[in-house]
């Protein structure tokens, strides 16, 4: 039998110890009323101390049927936390605004070509900017229009453009997805 290089002599000596269990992230598959942590589906977070003394917060997903190895230690810690009164938060779906905030940024090219595909000419965007009353906001919008590398879905210029053309936020969402293909 040959020694394997880089293999720890004692695997357990390289295993961290769970020092505190922080709880669960709200997740649509997580049953926040479940009390048996072996049957929970969700993402949990906890603190460990490594043998060298370093401390780290780890995130682990738990799923029924995947209860082996390290997961058993996490489930034990989760069960102790739950038995001590730990509460799993109920998942609340994100709002449309939260979803919009996470939509991918469009390059300036994608946005400008997308506008053109909706029959919006650059001069019309200039007119939207000219209508901004606050001089600072107007100049900031002009700089963004002329020099930005990209546009976010909730950028004030995007919102103003949609409102000016009478597009609902849902229509702009659909257009945003289309603009990504340009």
- Derived from helix and strand composition plus strand pairing, the structural class reads alpha+beta
Tell how many strands the DSSP assignment holds. Answer: 5
Overall shape: elongated
Helix content: 25-40%
Overall mean pLDDT: 89
Q: Helical segment tally?
A: 7
Tag the structure with descriptive keywords.
40% helix, disordered N terminus, alpha+beta, 182 residues, single chain, 16% strand, two-stranded antiparallel ribbon
Task: Characterise the protein shown here.
The protein has 182 residues and is α+β, with helices and mostly antiparallel strands. The chain is 40% helix and 16% strand. It has helices spanning 70-83, 96-101, 108-117, 122-130, 135-147, 156-164, 169-179, and strands at 17-25, 42-49, 55-62, 106-107, 150-151. The longest helix is centred in the middle third of the chain and has 14 residues, at 70-83. It is elongated and about 65 Å long. 16% of the residues are buried. The model is unreliable at 1-12 (pLDDT under 50).
């Amino acid at each position: 039998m040959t020694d394997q290089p880089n293999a720890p002599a004692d695997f357990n000596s390289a295993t961290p110890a769970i020092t505190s269990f922080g709880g669960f992230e709200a997740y649509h598959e997580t049953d926040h009323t479940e009390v048996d942590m072996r049957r929970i589906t969700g993402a949990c977070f906890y603190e460990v101390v490594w043998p060298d003394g370093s401390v780290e917060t780890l995130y682990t997903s738990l799923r029924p049927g995947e209860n082996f190895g390290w997961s058993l230690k996490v489930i034990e810690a989760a069960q102790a936390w739950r038995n001590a009164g730990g509460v799993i938060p109920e998942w609340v779906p994100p709002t449309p605004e939260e979803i919009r905030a996470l939509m991918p940024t469009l390059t300036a090219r994608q946005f400008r070509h997308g506008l053109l595909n909706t029959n919006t000419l650059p001069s019309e965007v200039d007119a939207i900017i000219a209508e901004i009353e606050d001089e600072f906001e107007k100049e900031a919008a002009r700089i963004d229009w002329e020099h930005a590398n990209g546009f976010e879905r909730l950028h004030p210029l995007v919102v103003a453009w949609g409102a000016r053309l009478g597009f609902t936020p849902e229509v702009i969402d659909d257009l945003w997805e289309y603009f990504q293909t340009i």
